[in-house]
Amino acid sequence: WLSLRRRRGVWATVDGEPLHARVLLVANNGYELSLFSIGVRERLDEGRLYLYRARGLLPRTWEHESGSSFTLDSPTGRVQAAVDGEPVELETPLELAVDPGALRVLLPRGQD
């Protein structure tokens, strides 16, 4: 999650285009988002990066786009974010990309 609590209007750019949003979510694979849910994913193996943006304090609707990569930039050179739920401050520009099929999952052998 990338969010901005005190500013309004354009506070960053995505691929050079002005970002009009209060909250920005960048996710690996698509989510189904609603007002009272942080989201549910149908798949974990889609291999697409999704960028969701919402306006207002309690977003009712989310605009989204997908791709294999995005570049996020800020005139301040920094954005406050959360990575896996942990708050961080990141230097911009951020090059965000997905590497489809890069994660391997090891499962125990079945019992015979």
Can you give the mean pLDDT?
79
Q: How many runs of DSSP E, i.e. beta strands?
A: 12
- Total helices: the number is 0
Order of helices and strands: EEEEEEEEEEEE
Write the layout of secondary structure elements.
Blueprint: E1 2-3, E2 10-14, E3 17-20, E4 23-28, E5 32-34, E6 37-40, E7 49-54, E8 63-67, E9 69-73, E10 78-83, E11 86-91, E12 94-97
Which properties best describe this structure?
disordered N terminus, 112 residues, single chain, globular, mainly beta, 12 strands, four-stranded antiparallel beta sheet
Describe this structure in words.
With 112 residues, the protein is mainly β. Helix content is 0%, strand content 50%. It has no helices and twelve strands. It has strands spanning 2-3, 10-14, 17-20, 23-28, 32-34, 37-40, 49-54, 63-67, 69-73, 78-83, 86-91, 94-97. It has a four-stranded antiparallel β-sheet with strand order 1-4-7-8, with no helix packed on it. A four-stranded antiparallel β-sheet has the order 3-2-9-12, with no helix packed on it. Strands 5-6 form a two-stranded antiparallel sheet. A hairpin with an 8-residue loop joins strand 7 (49-54) and strand 8 (63-67). The protein is globular and about 55 Å long. Residues 1-7 have low confidence and may be disordered.
